[in-house]
Amino acid sequence: MQSTNWVPLLPEQASTFAWQVDALYAYLIVISIAFTIPVVAAIFFFALKYREKEKFATPEEMHGSMVLETVWSIIPFVISMTIFLGGAIVYFNQYTPPADSMDIYVVGKQWMWKVQHETGQREINELHVPVGRNVKLTMTTEDVLHDFDIPAFRTKADVVPGRYTYMWFNATKPGKYHLYCAEYCGLNHSGMGGWVYVMEQRDFDNWLSGNVSGQTPVEMGKELFETKLGCASCHAGGPQQRGAKLEGVYNTQVKLVGGETVTADDNYIRNSINNPASQVVEGFQPIMPTFKGQVTEEQLNALVAYIKSLSPNAAAAPAAAKTATPMAPAAATPAAKAPVKPVAKSTK
Ligand code: CUA
Asked: How crowded is the C-beta side of 21, counted as CA atoms within 13 Å?
């Protein structure tokens, strides 16, 4: 897998921001060397030049130099600010998923990675993605803290129990790249890894259609919402519904009892399912029971995907649908692309 790489010590560069991370790293190394060499040389030079020649000599009194002190304060300040700016730009870029990203869900578990695609396909310890496309991973874990790490893409992110974290990348060349868990998570932590397969779009489409897709996350979420968990009995059904309206809520500001305002993002939806009493929407009673322990992480992902699909105007939703159309995998079902209208039943 090793190829033309200007730093042989580093893994292959296979994502759009890999070179940025490497350039920043090289810059840090160069600066460190540029400071280390003169400092060490000066230590030796002064040790020799000013070594003790006579016992109890009285040194000459010295007065500081304003110019010198200003210069050696300003130069390091400017250099450290370039490091800060470079780091901030790369970091901001890496942790701001583009709106047109393809969504993939990842659930960590001692000791495996479970992956589900928008079109329903699942895989374990493997992640297939198309080349040249923005891919966003929404990640969580069933048990302890893990960390999803793809060295060739120069990206990794902690996967935290009880919440969602994100990662995005755009793979630049087809191939097979290592996937690791980068957070010690127990006995078989070192075995918790696998491979990322970057494929040409048509190969990826073939791969998708060659796999049993089952329900898409949106379809699975709809089923849980309407029948299995019965969410619809309170959250759908017109003006008299007992639960807050969910259509169009995604990515909007929600006012809570107590005056606080929060953004209805993935973590908010997740928390509202697991811990409903903690964030009651203004105008509603804290009557919703908790679903903590009754829904698996995969089911939570599906519910979030479904509720997201009820808000076609939310920043991420229409963009994702747009890009999915021209390159839609054969197995894609309409539900994955088009928002699903909730079925209004009950509460009459
Ligand atoms: Cu999971 Cu280390």
From this structure: 20
The ligand 1 atom nearest the CA atom of 189: 2
Cα–Cα distance, 117 to 177 (Å, whole number): 19
Ligand 1 atom at minimum distance from 146 CA: 1
Looking at per-residue pLDDT, the higher value among 327 and 120 belongs to: 120
Higher pLDDT, 15 or 225: 15
Tens of pLDDT, residue by residue over 148-160, are 999 999 999 999 9
Report whether pLDDT(220) > 90: no
Query: Tokens 């919402």, residue?
Result: 225
| Cβ pair 126, 207 in contact under 8 A | no
Task: Give SS3 for 337.
Answer: helix
Write out residues with Cβ below 6 Å of ligand 1. 108, 111, 146, 181, 183-185, 189, 192
Cα of 185 from ligand 1 centre, angstroms: 4
| Cα 212 to averaged position of ligand 1 atoms, centre (Å) | 28
Which ligand 1 atom sits closest to the C-alpha of 111? 1
Q: How far is the CA of 105 from the centre of ligand 1 (A)?
A: 17
Distance CA 72, CA 44 (A): 20
pLDDT per position as a tens digit, 6-18: 556 788 899 999 9
